[in-house]
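Thread: Modeling a multi-component assembly for a lab meeting

Hi all, long-time lurker, first post. My supervisor asked me to bring a structural picture of a complex we are working on to next week's group meeting, and I have zero experience with this. I have the sequence lines for every component (500 residues in total). Could someone generate the structure of the whole assembly? Inputs are pasted exactly as I received them:
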Amino acid sequence: MIATWWEGFEPYVAGFLDASVVVLVLSICSILVSWIFGLLAALGKVSRFRLLRWLSDFYIWFIRGTPTLIQIFIVYFGLPQFGLRLSPFVAGVIALGFNGGAYVAEIIRSGLSAIPRGQTESAEALGMGRSLLMRRIILPQVFRIILPPLTNEAISMLKNTSLLSVITVVELTLYSQTIIATTFRPFEFYIATALIYLVMTSVISQIAAYLERKFARSL
Amino acid sequence: MTADRDALIRIRGLHKSYGPIEVLKGISLDVHQGEVVSIIGASGSGKSTFLRCLNVLEMPQAGRLRFEGFDFDFDENSRHRPTAADLRLLRARIGMVFQSYNLWPHMTVLENVIEAPIRVAGQPLREATANAEALLARIGLVDKRHSYPTRLSGGQQQRVAIVRALAMAPKVMLFDEVTSALDPELVGEVLSLVASLAEDGMTMLLVTHEIGFAREVSTRTLFFDQGLVAEDGPPREVLQDPRSDRLRQFLKRVLHTDVRRDAGHAVDGSAGAQAIEGSAP
Ligand SMILES: Nc1ncnc2c1ncn2[C@@H]1O[C@H](COP(=O)(O)OP(=O)(O)O)[C@@H](O)[C@H]1O
Ligand SMILES: [Mg+2]
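Re: Modeling a multi-component assembly
Sure thing. I ran the full set together rather than chain by chain. Output:
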């Protein structure tokens, strides 16, 4: 029984591996892009300039209030109308990164506001300048605080890459759909696909748990 | 006002407002090398704001501050307003300790103490470490140097915070109610450390509600009232023989609560007094 199952899978193992690598690369790129957008928006929110604060608020409001799928369509199908034709992969990374950035911005902002005022003051009172105290005193503490929510974001980012199947990025979800179209075994292949996602998200959780333990001794 | 060329700190006409609320209404003061100035006054009278103006954590709207090579004029149109670089240099020369100890929780005790000497004063790691360990030995916490602050009691944390400020070899120390957040039984150890610094001749300004401690340790007492220095003199005169009704009422209120506290715990002024007697030969 198991042997026959396995025989059914075997021809597709290499394809699954390739598709998983695509998911990983997509996730890593989108996560990095989301950190950049998130950091910019978080800084915008605490900016001295009203325009930047307003822009950050609008960005976060728009992203959180609209479906991710529609955001992906806007980037992939909408932008070409303005002459900006992107490959499915690049459009996907930009759309997911832009989407994740809004959530990352909120995480960073709440992390910054969780650091008591006295932490900055005691550093200033010792003669530290803004950039030194940000680098040495504030950001290391913020990083420890935002690590768990950032992990959750990374996991949802990885799962969201499956949405990119609709704009023809050949990642895990689209790959399994193409196999199912010829094998007519949706149950087995979707379960297999789910298990691969599960392994990847669990690895992220484990890495984060390790980092958290490493920092726990000081907090 | 007589020109006082020898003063270590010279303050003239210091004004500080938050929006429409004027918190400091023109304070002038000379502090000499080795003076221990205790500052008392009702909550909201501007004591903390005054200390925070001395190292310019708050930027006053008017007034002058002279200290070592610095001569600032805070007036908006002045060309002698401090720059960001001036402030870093000034603050490196003035130590400040807060009510909430504000140790950095992601660094060990030793890392807390050597951070500013290395990153701000540019000391080599070895020198900064040796100096920090000597200071920690003085307060009996050298064996805790690799602990994180949360593992320490409040009294220990506050003493490390004092040592962290001392590690920059400041010319003046500012203490803002450094025992107010502590459990009563931990107040004594912090006050003895402050008293021993006073004995060493450290110039300091300390805001405190420990009236007994102010009387024993300081060489001069200021009474702040509604943003002005209402009384200024030797602690015995100011505290035993207040000239104004407001100070008399203030002392009555504070001493009353002191008495209540002393009934339960042998702390307060007596702890400071003991520290001094204890360290006398
Ligand atoms: N950052 C601030 N913004 C607005 N008002 C403030 C600020 N800091 C202090 N104040 C006000 O200034 C007054 C004096 O405060 P403070 O100097 O802390 O008094 P004290 O230390 O004598 O209790 C208080 O009325 C307080 O509410
Ligand atoms: Mg105060």
